[in-house]
Write a structure and sequence with these properties.
The protein is mainly α. The chain contains 15 helices and no strands.
Amino acid sequence: MVDILAAPQQTKADSALRTLTGISIAHWVSHFYIFVFPMLFPFLKEQLGVGYIELGFALTAFGLVSGLTQAPIGYLTDHFGARKVLLIGLAVGGCALIGLGLHLSYPALIVSAVVLGLANSVYHPADYAILSAHMDNARMGRAFSVHTFAGFLGGAVAPAIMLALVATVGGLGALIVAGAIGPLVALLLIAMGVPDTSAAERKAAGAEAPKQNIVTPAIMMLTIFFMLLGLSNAGISNFGIVALMSGYGVDLATANVALTAFLAASAIGVLAGGFLADRTHRHGQVAAAAFGINAVIMLVIAIASLPSPLLTALLTVAGFLGGVITPSRDMLVRNAAPPGAAGRAFGIVSTGFNFSGIFAPLLFGWIMDQHMPHWVFGASVVFMVLTVLLALVTERKPAQIPATA
C-alpha cells in the first residue's frame, strides 16, 4: 500500500522537476538573446557602416516593443495557453536572428530587433503562468529563484559564447547559430513534455474576463515597484564602473572586480532568497528589509571615500541582498494575481522593468555628463527608499476567515 501511494507522488515530483528545468532553460535563452546584439556591435558597426547611435536605436526598438507587448502577450497566455505562446516566442526570436544572419542590412537589423523584442515579451507571462500552475506551493519561491538564476546565467555566459562563435564561424555565422538555439530549445521543451496551463484555468479566465479587472491598484503598484527595482539596480550595473573610476579614484581592474562581485552575489542571493520566500508569507517585509539595508549601504558609498576592499565588500553584500528579494518580489505578484490571470499579471508588472531599461540609461548618463559620479549611487538610494515604501504598501494581506459556530 505504501508503494502504491508513493508512486503518484514521485511521478508528480518528477513532472515538477521536468517542468522547472524546461522553463528555466527557456529563461536562459531569453537573457542570452538580450545580449546577442550588444556583443556583436563591433562586427555590426564595421559591416553596416553605421555609428553607435544607430546601433543603440536597435536596442531602443527592442526595449520599446518588448515593454509595450508584455501585457497583450499576458492576455494571450491566459486565454490560449502559456506553452503555445512560449514555444512560438522561442521559435520567432530565433528566426529573427537567423534571418538577420542570412540577410544583413541596417533595415534588417531594426526589423530583427523589433521581432526579437516581441519574442522576448513572452517569457515572463508564459514562464510564470506555467510555474504558478504546476509547482508545489510549498516550493514556489525556490522554483521562482531557480528560474531567475537561469536567466542571470544566460546573460553571464552570453559574452563568452558570442565571442567564441565570432572567432569560429564569423559574425554572420554567430547570428545564425545563436538564432538556432531558440527553435532547438522549443523542440526540447516539446520532447520534455513541459505542460500547458490547464484548459479549466483558461476557460475560467475567459469566462471571468468581462467581470475581472486585472489592472487592480495592487498590480499597478507592483508595476511601479518593478520599475523602481530596475532603476535602483541599473545605475550600479551599467554605470558603476565609470562612476567608481571617475569619482572614487578606483582603477579599471578594481572597479571590474567590485562590479563582478556585485553581480555574482546577486545570482547567489536569488537562490538563497528562494528558500526564504518559501518560509514566510510576508514577502513585502522581506523585500523592504533587504532593500532598506541596501539603501544604507549605497548611502555610505555615495557620501564616503572608502578603501577598495571595503567598497568591494559593501557592493558584494548589496548584490546578495538585491538577489534575495527577487523570489519574494515574484511571490508578491503571484499573490496579487486574480485566479487564472497569472500571465496577464506578470505581463503587466514586467513592463516596469522594460521601461526602467529605457529611462535608466538617460538618467544615469545625464548624471555622469554632469560630472556627479557619486550620484550614481545617490540616485540608487532614492529609488531604493521608494522601493521599500512600495514593498510594504503592495503586500497583499491574507483574507480574514470568518469564525464558524
